[in-house]
Amino acid sequence: MKYKIEYKASHVDGFQSAGIHCGIKKNNLKDLGLIYCPAPSGVAGVFTQNVTKAAPVTLSENHLSQTLPKAILINSGNANACTGIQGSVDALKSAECLAKQLGINTNEVLVSSTGIIGVPLPMQHLGAGILKISTTLTNSDFEDVSTAIMTTDTYSKSVTATFTIDGREGRITGIAKGSGMIHPNMATMLGFMMTDVQIDSDTLQSLLSETTNKSFNMISVDGDTSTNDMVLAMASGAKHAPKILSQSSKEQFQEVFHALSVELAKLIASDGEGATKLLEMTVKGARSYEDAAKASKSVISSSLVKAAFFGKDANWGRIICAMGYSGALFEPDKVDLQLKSENGILQLMKNGSPLSFNEDHALDVLSPDTILIQANLNDGAYSATAWGCDLTYDYVKINGEYRS
Prior knowledge:
The chain is an alpha+beta fold. The chain has two domains: 3-270, L-amino peptidase D-ALA esterase/amidase; 278-400, Ubiquitin-like (UB roll). Helix content is 32%, strand content 27%. It contains eleven helices and 17 strands. A hairpin with a 2-residue loop joins β14 (344-350) and β15 (353-354). α5 packs across α6. The longest helix is centred in the middle third of the chain and has 24 residues, at 247-270.
């Protein structure tokens, strides 16, 4: 199947959107986004497995279980998490207010928030913002929304894929935010996928859940699973777009949906707070996908591994150590290990035995901003890839000053 991926937030037929400043953030930065689809064909969502779920997560899960939502309201600067009963009241009020403005039912509104935990929403600003944003909806791209959902992100994250299925051209645009508190579990930071294909909610939910497990759930910045993580997918069912009905069309759509999700996941990992490098860990030759996934994600989650790559230090024992405590089943004396970048390949292990290497060559390989870590367990036919970033001084600085 042929498809084209571009790093931008293109318009998708059947959707309207807007992003504005409503007063939650300082310096007139955008902090409120809205995505609206008047007649969706399918909606799906995955949510954080953190027991301490934020009020908007609980509300959105509930609304999604009841009906086919038409609107997604997102605010940044305040997570509305750990805010008690008042947080639930405020989340519901936000949905009620937007529903009234759009002329839809309250349970047709999904709410998402990101920012500081433990601080009540400034409803005077948010309420006025909802009134304003509902009148500024346009058929343009999603760039304003992509900007409005940022917190410590250094850039907005958006990807668009165009493809053809059964002779019909379709499009998916995905936007996401995430820089810190990234260690998803059946969810991701915040991610929103909009497509024009005709697909029902059950099929879309199955596709989203499976894709999330192999993309967003395979990234880690700091090992913290957020209280607010969610990914929402919405399909407008535009008349000209592909119909996802047959098994063949489902497989083709899943291929491009997965590819787009992986690109978004990599953007999030590379923008980890204070990060200077994107780390991509691939484990192949595993007995099962689960073993490969456990081993690969354990490596990119290790603070010692992450710190070594920041220092351009080929301290590969930390990689093997992280694989060993991952819970994956493998035989250490069969493992091959190498590091790879645009500057070359550094072979480290063969059949569980260390290989000598030149320190100058190692420094050269570890200098670029993308490093591939590749392990072959030589024990099966399964593989998995995870993405992370290095751990720098700036990570501590950013998080030490987050509230100020």
